[in-house]
Design goal:
The chain contains eight helices and five strands. It has 233 residues and is an alpha/beta fold. It has a single domain, classed as 3-Layer(aba) Sandwich (Rossmann fold). It has a five-stranded parallel beta sheet, sandwiched between helices. Helix 1 links the parallel strand 1 and strand 2. Helix 1 packs across helix 7 and helix 7 crosses helix 8. The longest helix is centred in the middle third of the chain and has 16 residues.
Length: 233
């Protein structure tokens, strides 16, 4: 008799990091339930990418949730604020950029927590990174630890002693190491969308923080990024 796989909810944005994280969850033997959000971000291209990625990996189920963070605004990703372009990599590690979406990971993890409890899953995967990242406070290990503590207090599962684990397999990896890891797992990065400000045709801008970090990762890994760019720094 085959032992059922443990279920895990995987936050899937359609970008490089979340796609690699999905590949890791599957490689570790989990039955993956992918969760994507249409939260009022500047474009829907990444959502289309997430759908293709979920299908490519054959996840158990893929949900696309609609929430409207544009109602709050406060970010270049959810309001009429210009996306910063051409920043030096060193500058990205200092301060919190205007592309930070207030409390986004807290909100997204809360949805994942609710679905995990319904599924009877004790595991959530999220592709946060504290090395090559843009200074977001909700990508730090301290935040993840605090959220796990919250989950123990806030759910029936936690109260009954079934503690939730938030997996962050990329949190200590450089972008180059993430790319290498994904390729070892057979991730097709041509399916992914990382850019904060892509063209209507889906070309990455090549100048926003996300593009620059992605390009840096591929370059340091000695590889060419397979997605099309309007500009490459």
């Amino acid at each position: 008799m085959t032992t059922p796989k443990a279920k895990a909810v995987v936050l899937l944005s359609g970008g490089l990091d979340s796609t690699t994280t999905l590949g890791i969850a599957l490689s570790e033997g989990f039955e993956a339930y992918a969760l994507t959000f249409r939260y009022g971000q500047r474009h829907s291209i990444e959502i289309d990418a997430a759908k293709k990625i979920a299908k490519h990996f054959g996840v158990a189920k893929h949900l696309v949730m609609d929430i409207d963070l544009r109602a709050f605004g406060g970010s270049a990703l959810t309001a009429d604020i210009d996306v910063p372009k051409g920043r030096a990599t060193e500058d990205m590690a200092h301060g919190i950029p205007v592309t930070y979406v207030p409390a986004r990971n807290t909100i997204l993890l809360s949805y994942a927590l609710g679905w995990a409890e319904v599924l009877g899953a004790a595991d959530i995967f999220i592709g946060v990174n504290a090395i090559d990242y843009s200074g977001y406070p909700d990508c730090r290990p301290e935040f993840i630890s605090a959220f796990e503590n919250l989950a123990r207090l806030a759910t029936r599962a936690g109260v009954e002693g079934r503690n939730l684990k938030v997996h962050t397999p990329l949190i200590r990896l450089s972008k180059a190491d993430i790319v290498r890891c994904g390729l070892d797992l057979g991730v097709d990065y041509s399916l992914t969308v990382t850019c904060y400000d892509p063209s209507p045709a889906g070309e990455a801008c090549g100048e926003c923080d996300s593009c620059l970090l992605r390009l840096k990762g591929f370059a340091e890994a000695g590889l060419e990024d397979p997605v099309p760019y309007k500009v490459q720094a």
